[in-house]
Amino acid sequence: MLASRFRTIFTAVALSALVAAPAAAENEHVAPMKELAAGKVKAWIADPVVIASIRAQNAAHASLAQEDIDRLDKAWRGEVKAGSGELTKKTLANQLSVYLKKVKADGQGLYTEIFVMDNKGLNVGQSDMTSDYWQGDEPKWQQTYSVGPDAIHIGKIAVDESSQILQSQLSLSIADPDTGKVIGAVTVGVNVEQLGQ
Asked: pTM here?
């Protein structure tokens, strides 16, 4: 089974010292991640709450300049460090975040985190608190939103420090069903040990 093969490969290396997965394991997770993207993930990102939430934030953020984005990101990071704040509370309580928390729970451990980004790379909603608010400077957004409506980015396998779970990030562009144009992106943390189960 795929999960046991991942565990076998990785148990030879202390998880806390793991920096990069061996090439065999790294390649093994790509096909099941693409299958997950084409099936389950594509289905739930098409939900009207996802599309409506991205459209609304894109409209609200239409006039933001880079300095505004940097200010919001700095405020978010400060709130994360403090444990709470207006921006983080508002985002984590919005309709999209509630939906993503349910999707994560329904995944029964397959998803480690889920967050949706707008056309500037800012978080729209999320299942869990992210360390930053702006993802626009990272491959998860640059290699999806900036590429086109069918773009997929699959991250390397890494160990989550808190849970010790082997995971990879799967990111996809999100297109507006009415126009076919990219309006945002989603990143899904995936427990690779549950792939193919």
From this structure: 0.86
